[in-house]
Input
Amino acid sequence: MSLRLVRIDDRLIHGQVVAGWLRAIGGRRIVIVDDATARDEFLREVLTLAAPQGVPVEVYDVAAGAARCIELAAKPEPVIVLARSPRTILGLRQAGVPIEVVDLGGMGAGPGRKRIHKTISVSPGEIRELREIERLGTRVEIQIVVDDRPISFASVVSGE
Output
């Protein structure tokens, strides 16, 4: 499967994604799935410019992103899929996107959010969404940078 990295990161494209993950997995394309970003022409342009030269960036809402991810999963090109929230990944899974593992890479703190690991804070609703993603057969792991050892989501929220 060519969806080499599916990552939830509220910053989408940034240094860790470009310098670490893209190189480590040999990513040749970045697909961003986020309803708000898909509607924001300026943000789409900024994100496209943040990627290394020669790495295409595609931005979709959840419905179109699911169709594109299913298409790309059947091809050999290594792809990174980025989303801002568990809800988006849940929507992709419910639409039939074959995601083996989703990586929690950065989910910021804020009101109603609880820190579960370094830069990962979640709301009660996001915990439910991540558990549903797992119920659908996708492993949820925390791996902020490529050199980190993956930590299972279930191990950090088992008592929640």
User: Anything to note?
Assistant: The two ends are 33 Å apart (CA to CA). The domain at 3-157 is CATH 3.40.35.10 (Fructose Permease). The beta strands are 3-9, 29-33, 57-60, 79-83, 101-106, 114-117, 120-122, 139-142, 151-152. The chain has a mean pLDDT of 94.
